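re: ur question from yesterday

yeah so i grabbed the chain u mentioned. its 385 aa long if i counted rite. heres the sequnce exactly as i have it in my notes:
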Amino acid sequence: MISRCFVRLIMQHYPDLRITRVLTRRGIDAIDDFPLREALTNSIDDLVEHSDLIVECSGDVFFGTQVIERAFEAGLPVVTVNAELQVTTGSWLAGKGLLTEAEGDQPGSLAALHEDAVQMGFKPLVYGNMKGFLNHNPSREDMAYWSKRQGISIDQTTSFTDGTKVQIEQVVVGNGFGASISRPGLEGLASTDLNRSASVLGLIAENLGQPIVDYVIPSGYPAGGVFLVCRHDEAQAPAIEYFKLGPGPYYVLSRPFHLCSLEVGKTVRRVLAGGGVLLNNSTKPTLGVAAMAKHEMKPGEIIMRGIGGFDVRGEAIRLADEPEHVPIGLLRNTVLKRALEPGQMITFDDIELQPSRVLDIILQQRQEAGRADALAVNNYARATL
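ran it thru and got these C-alpha cells back, copy pasting raw so excuse formatting
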C-alpha cells in the first residue's frame, strides 16, 4: 500500500521528481495492477544504478538492510518508512550513510512537530503517540478478519494490535532525540482528555529529569495523531495562554493526523535539497525493543517471526538495563533452546539464531558496546587512582 500510494503521489503532484525504478521480490509478470509497472525490477543493482535517492518502505528488516547497504556503497541517500529496520539495524546504518525516517508515519511526524516546536522556543518534555486499540495477545482469527477488512497484511495488523509497532516507533523517536522511558513497556495511559494525560506525562518526565517517549490510548477523541508536551519561558506564559494553549506550565502541541505515504515526498525533497536527516535511530542508541513471550513455549519450538507474529511482542527497554535482550526485529525462524513463560523476556541464551547479515550487525554492535563499557570502567579506575 505504501509504495503504490507513494508512486501515485509523485506521478501526480511532484513534477520535479520521477520514479525510475521500483524494486520488488515478486515475479514482475504476476503484477498487473501497479501504477508504474514499467519501473518494476527484481535487481538491486538496477535500482541503485538508476537512482539519485532511494525510498525503502518494505517493512522488512532483513531485505531492507541489504538494500540500504548496497545503496550506501553507491553513495546514495536513503529515506525509510521502516521503523522496524531503524530500531534493529538503523544505528549501524546511520554511521555508514545518510539515513532518515520519512515524515508521515508517527516517528517522522513527531520529528517534524519537534522541529516546529523548537523553532518556536518550546522545550519538549514528552514525545507522545496515540494508539486506538491495544491487545497484547490477539487471536489469529481476529487478526485475519481485521487484516482482510483493512487491506493490510496480517503481520502488520498483528504488530499494530499487540503494541509492538508503537513500542518500536517510540524507541526510534527516543533514540533520535535523546529521550528515555519512564519504565519498560511505557506508561500507555488510558486517556479521555489529552491535556490532562499530557500533564501527567509531563510530571513523570520532570521527575525523571529528562524527556521521555510514551503513548496514550484515547477515548472520546480521535487517535490518529501525535503530540508533544512542552515547557516554555515563563515570560511567554501570558501570550501563550492568549494563543489558546492554556495557562501552562505544560503545553500540548498536537498534530491530529499522520498520512504515511502522502507525506514521504516532503522528506525526499528535504534530503535532495540538502536538508539532512529528519530522524533516525542515532549512532548511539540508549533504548531498544525486547521480545517478550506471549504464551508458554517449549524447547525446540520455532518462533516464525518476531514483529507481527503470534509468539512474541515487543517492549521498549533501556539498553543498559537489559544487555542480554534479543531485539525483536532479529527473530525469524528462530529455534528455542529453553522453555519460556508468558511475559518472559527472551535472551540470546534462550535461542538458536539463523545466520544473517542482520545478526552479524547486531553481534558487532554488542561487541563494540562491550568494549565501550570496558573502556569506561578503565577510565574510571584510572581517574580514581
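noticed a couple things. Residues 357-384 form the longest helix (28 residues). also The mean pLDDT is 95.
anyway ttyl
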